[in-house]
Design brief:
GO molecular function, one term: sequence-specific DNA binding
Strand content: 15-25%
Distance between the termini: 77 Å
GO biological process, one term: DNA-templated transcription
Pfam family, one: LysR_substrate
Order of helices and strands: HHHEEHEHEEEHEHEHEHEEH
Protein name: HTH-type transcriptional regulator CynR
CATH class of the largest domain: Alpha Beta
Shape: rod-shaped
Number of helices: 10
Largest sheet: 7 strands, mixed
Keywords: DNA-binding, Signal, Transcription, Transcription regulation
Radius of gyration: 32 Å
CATH architecture of the largest domain: 3-Layer(aba) Sandwich
Length: about 290
């Protein structure tokens, strides 16, 4: 008996004959010629030193030895299928661009700067930016990496790294200051107009609305970019991160950074994406990941 089993594909042929009861039916299932199926069964029997099928005019009937091997053969079939799927997934995901999601202002103002160093270190990696104000579901594979402006990440299943924190302060355009002047303090807002953000960052909105009357709000914006644009256009005073404001020379700081008012920027991945080699390097390791405040 030759007990050195070397041709794993014969297991697939064996199972096809076992399930269909004939080499003709198995050949149709496998997409190969009937004589080839018959030769593969004979070769497997020779290798194992066992008679796997009794042949008669009605077809191939499994012997006791074949039935004893069925469970192990099906386990091998399942493992082979799993290996193929894993390899296909790995090849596909390893070659794709990393899908990065975040609100437009994060990707345009901060993250592109960080990537200038990161891509020098990892030229083989490319990125697909999904700029949206919506929070994409990483767990459902809507994106690989998220860059988010939040105080804390509340989902314990996500893998998070704080990239940096920036204080928040009130800013106005030079045109606004020329027309309305500056408040003497954060308790002297009665003669001023304000731009606020609706929805997210509730803590910051509540701080402003608790110090003014509703008629002082001249614009509500649904995105951080819109707040920046409205302030730059002279509509009113608004809260901005100090790091972002440094890049806008036409802005004037109205009130110094507010105590305990910081906005955190997080790099977030799902456990599934974190395992892929394309997501293994982290842009937050860049020496430029912490902007000036």
């Amino acid at each position: 008996m030759n007990n050195r089993f070397t041709n794993w594909s014969d297991i697939r042929v064996f199972l096809a004959v076992l399930r269909t009861g004939s080499t003709l039916a198995a050949s149709k299932t496998l997409g190969m010629a009937q004589p080839t199926v018959a030769r593969r069964i004979e070769a497997l029997e020779h290798t194992l030193g066992l008679m796997l099928f009794d042949r008669d005019t009605r077809g191939f009937k499994a012997t006791e030895a074949a039935l004893a091997l069925k469970t192990d053969a099906e386990a091998m079939e399942m493992n082979a299928s799993s290996v193929a799927i894993t390899a296909k997934t790995f090849k596909s995901t390893a070659s794709k661009a990393i899908r990065v999601t975040g609100v437009p202002e994060v990707l345009s103002e901060n993250f592109a700067v960080i990537l200038s160093d990161f891509t020098d270190q990892h030229p083989e990696i490319t990125f697909d930016f999904l700029a949206t104000p919506e929070t994409l579901d990483l767990a459902n594979d809507e994106a690989d990496v998220a860059i988010r402006y939040v105080n804390e990440v509340t989902d314990p299943s996500l893998i998070c790294r704080k990239m940096f924190s920036q204080p928040m302060a009130l800013y106005a355009s030079q045109a606004y200051v020329k027309k309305y002047g500056l408040p003497a303090s954060q308790d002297d807002f009665s003669d001023h107009k304000f731009v606020v953000m609706s929805g997210g960052m509730r803590k910051f909105r509540d701080w402003i609305t608790g110090r003014i009357t509703p008629d002082q709000i001249v614009m509500e914006c649904d995105s951080y970019n819109s707040v920046v644009a409205a302030i730059l256009s002279g509509f009113g005073i608004g809260l901005l991160s100090t790091g972002l404001a440094l890049d806008k020379p036409s802005l004037t700081r109205v009130v110094e950074p507010i105590e305990d008012f910081t906005v955190n920027t997080w790099l977030i991945t799902s456990p599934q994406a974190h395992k892929h080699p394309r997501c293994a390097p982290s842009p937050s390791s860049s020496p430029r990941a912490t902007p000036p405040c």
